[in-house]
Amino acid sequence: MQTYTQKKIAVINDLSGYGRCSLTVAIPILSAMGIQCCPVPTAILSNHTEFPVYFFDDYTDKMRAYAGKWQELGLTFDGISTGFLGSMEQIAIVTDLVEMLSKEDTEVFVDPVMGDHGILYATYTEEMCEEMKNLVGLADVVTPNVTEACILTDTPYKETGWTRRELLNMAMMLRLMGAKSVVITGVREGNFYTNVVLGRGMREAEFVKVKSGGGQRPGTGDVFSSVLAGAVLNGKSLRDSVEQASRFVKDCIIKSDELEIPHANGVCFEEILGRLAKK
What angle do CA 2, 74, 138 make, to 5 degrees? Predict the structure, then answer.
């Protein structure tokens, strides 16, 4: 009789109790896709930082001891996913944790959350950007947005007007850092967003376009990266995984606008989570 082994993924990110982002997005989405989601918190927040006030507890000093117990138990994971990291020390710790918790066929997903709209986040320093390049080098799939791809490759940023060749060159540079596959997300092209997909060993990129579903909201990057990781671990091709993640994010935005969900509350993915349920 065939034995069923459920996939499991370690997700390294912060836990925000309110606002639908980071681990509170990843856990339900990956669970719905039939994957055991094992969180490694980098910080605990009452709500995300777009709200005017919030509680914040930095977990940096606890991360090695936390994951060290997993190592003592002999745990390894089919996937490891990383999100926002708040300091040089956290990036260095996560680099070590990826190596500690991986097995031979572990898929490592790195979302280098560093900035948006051409602006580096206030918490990021030049030294942190350099350290992030080392983490990118461990990725099986790296998913920067256009701003982050520009920062990592020292490419001048522009909001629109990207040529296919320019985008391919950036993706190639990210692969030269060590990332096996690259997905550059959210390239604005009129009423569409284009994702640049450069899979393992590919010499030409694929371009996955999806019509804009409305305005941007907090947490959509976490939704995208969670669905992408889940789809890849469930055996989908990288292109098909990007298409599924893009469509789901679009539908989440549309549903949130229909229900008049406040912007800071992110996207109400719960309303359509059943679409991701593993058949």
Answer: 95
In a domain, 79, yes or no: yes
Burial class (CB in 10 A: 0-12, 13-18, 19+), 205: buried
Domain with 179 in it: 8-268
**Cβ atoms 227, 33 nearer than 8 A:** yes
Q: How confident is the model at residue 4, as a pLDDT?
A: 57
Asked whether residue 160 is assigned to any structural domain, the reply reads yes
- How buried is 59 (Cβ within 10 angstroms: 0-12 exposed, 13-18 middle, 19+ buried)? middle
Statement: the pTM of the whole predicted model exceeds 0.70: yes
- If 0-12 CB within 10 Å is exposed, 13-18 middle and 19+ buried, where does residue 246 land? buried
What is the torsion angle, in degrees rounded to the nearest 10, for the CA atoms of residue 17, residue 19, residue 21 and residue 22?
-20
Q: What Cα–Cα distance (Å) separates residue 59 from each residue in 19, 46, 128?
A: 19, 14, 18
Residue 58 lies in a domain: yes
User: What residue ranges of the chain have pLDDT lower than 50?
Assistant: 1-3
Is 23 within the bounds of a domain? yes
pLDDT of residue 135: 97
Domain count, the chain: 1
